[in-house]
Design goal:
The protein has one domain (6-159). 88% of the residues lie in helices and 0% in strands. The protein has helices spanning 6-137, 142-155. Helix 1 packs antiparallel against helix 2 (142-155).
Length: 165
C-alpha cells in the first residue's frame, strides 16, 4: 500500500503554497503587464487606423480639389481662347474694313486723277489739233475748230485711251 508520510504532505503543501505565491507575486503582475501591453498595442493600432482614415480623407479632398482646379483651369483656358478668337475676328474685320476704305480711297483718287488727266488731255489734243489744222488749212476760226475737236474728243471712250485699235 501506499504510505503517506509527512514529507509527502509537506511537499504537497509546499507545492500549493508555491503555486499560490507564484500566482500572487508573478503570474498576476505578468498577466496585468501583458494585458496593458495588449491594450497599448490595440490603442496604437486604432490610432494608426484613424490616421490612415484621415490621410485617405485628406487625399480624397486633395484629389477633389485638384480635379476642381483642373476644371477651373480648363474653363479659364477655354474662355481665354474664345476671347482670343473674338479679338482675332474683330481685328480681321477692322483690317478688312480699313483695306476696303483704302482701296475705295485709292479708286476715288485714281478716278479723280484720270478725270484731271482726261481734262488736260482734251485741252492738249484740242490745241494740237488746232495747230495742225492751222498749218494744213491756214488761218481758220479757232472757235469753229474748238467745237469740232470737242465733238471728236467727246466721242472718244476714256477707258480705251492708250489701247491700240
Amino acid at each position: 500500500m501506499v504510505q503517506i508520510d509527512l514529507t509527502l504532505i509537506a511537499s504537497v503543501i509546499n507545492f500549493f503554497l508555491l503555486v499560490w505565491l507564484l500566482q500572487r507575486v508573478l503570474y498576476k503582475p505578468v498577466q496585468n503587464l501583458l494585458q496593458e501591453r495588449q491594450k497599448t498595442i490595440e490603442e496604437k493600432l486604432a490610432a494608426a487606423a484613424e490616421r490612415e482614415r484621415r490621410a485617405a480623407s485628406k487625399e480624397e479632398e486633395y484629389e477633389q480639389h485638384l480635379a476642381e482646379s483642373k476644371k477651373e483651369a480648363q474653363k479659364v483656358l477655354k474662355s481665354a481662347t474664345q476671347q482670343g478668337e473674338a479679338l482675332k475676328q474683330e481685328i480681321l474685320a477692322k483690317a478688312k474694313k480699313q483695306a476696303a476704305e483704302i482701296i475705295a480711297q485709292a479708286q476715288r483718287q485714281a478716278q479723280e486723277e484720270q478725270a484731271q488727266l482726261w481734262q488736260h488731255f482734251r485741252g492738249e489734243v484740242g490745241k494740237v489739233a488746232i495747230e495742225l489744222a492751222e498749218k494744213v488749212v491756214g488761218e481758220l476760226d479757232e472757235e469753229h475748230y474748238q467745237k469740232l475737236m470737242d465733238n471728236i474728243i467727246s466721242q472718244l471712250d476714256p477707258n480705251t485711251l492708250g489701247e491700240p485699235k
